What we know:
Layout: E1 3-9, E2 14-23, E3 26-36, H1 38-41, H2 49-71, E4 80-86, H3 90-107, E5 111-115, H4 116-128, E6 134-139, E7 144-151, E8 154-160, H5 166-176, H6 183-191, H7 216-229, H8 238-268, E9 276-280, H9 287-300, E10 303-305, H10 309-312, H11 317-329
Parallel strand pairs: 1-4, 4-5, 6-9, 9-10
Antiparallel strand pairs: 1-2, 2-3, 6-7, 7-8
Helix pairs in contact: 2-3, 4-11, 5-6, 5-7, 5-8, 6-8, 7-8, 8-9
Amino acid sequence: MTRTILGIESSCDDTAAAVVRQDATGAHILSSVVFGQTGLHAAFGGVVPEIAARAHAEKVDLSVEQALSQAHVALRDCDAIAVTAGPGLIGGVLSGVMCAKGLSAATGLPLIGVNHLAGHALTPRLTDAVDFPYLMLLVSGGHCQFLIVHDNDRFERIGGTIDDAPGEAFDKTARLLGLPQPGGPAVEQAAMAGDPKRFALPRPLLDRADCDMSFSGLKTALLRARDSVIGPDQSLKAGDQADLAAGFQAAMTDVLQAKTARALDRYLALAPVAPVLAVAGGVAANLSIRAALTRLCEGRKVRFVAPPLALCTDNAAMIAYAALHRLESGDFDDLTLSARPRWPLDGAAPAMLGSGRKGAKA
Ligand code: KG4
Ligand code: ZN
């Protein structure tokens, strides 16, 4: 049986729509349209929620129109409308949810509210037909967690950051070093010419036997190291910039590698038949981090899966795909669907330090 889903994503700084079709041969992405907002936020050094919300509201209809036309699919040919209902910036999530509700009300098509993190976590099944259970490391600008993915709707969070996400740390590092945004690719590029050993930066929480991480201390240590070499006119020599970038990237890589090793211990104790470590999020593009994780997996006889970058970062194909099993079981939302800024995937996981009075964000 063929099923076609329109997906909509607007939880952070990408407005996206996609059409995914499942047939007897599997799930296929018929189109995936993403309007990024990097240029709109560049001057502010981070995503500005109000600017993001306005841009989503402006682009969401267009992204749907383009996704349908690129897929050569009419709205009436779809079987459901899937939309990210959280976690994320409330204004952005609302834009997507309102658009999806409008389309659902106008067409009578079922509405399915999807958790953004479930979209990331299920992507390796769409791209690489990975079997449950697998271990997922989600490392992006806003998220950092280890999940054991047991089923389409059962995610076990076994650790994550207690403060900054790795992408956020890369972006802040770039700012401290006078490099452009987004910081990850700029720091990676600068690090190529640097000596990772010159500045002794910390590897936080490695003394703790769990899978939790912390990156805010690393950022402070980098600031001190930078201030020890910065000129009176606040200028940084190219060599110092490269060594600082290399030192930061090496610390980040070491922490992610060591904590992934621990997460693998927990996961492999389940004795999965075909063990897999999958990554998602923009930071998974980093070659130093990828190489460290690949080596780790080789040593443990675990398959390493990194979906193509366009599907590792925010997109709507993952949202449409994550709704497929709910379309099959008839598990729909209705027009009372709310946008949820906080929506932990694993409600049973203990709240993280720094998650605030209202509990875990994600
Ligand atoms: O998944 P993503 O596109 O967006 C969300 O966070 O939702 O991730 C973006 C993050 C940014 O912080 C960016 O600096 C980081 O991923 N990033 C990288 C690299 N490419 C992107 N970090 C390290 N190395 C890279 N090559
Ligand atoms: Zn994301």
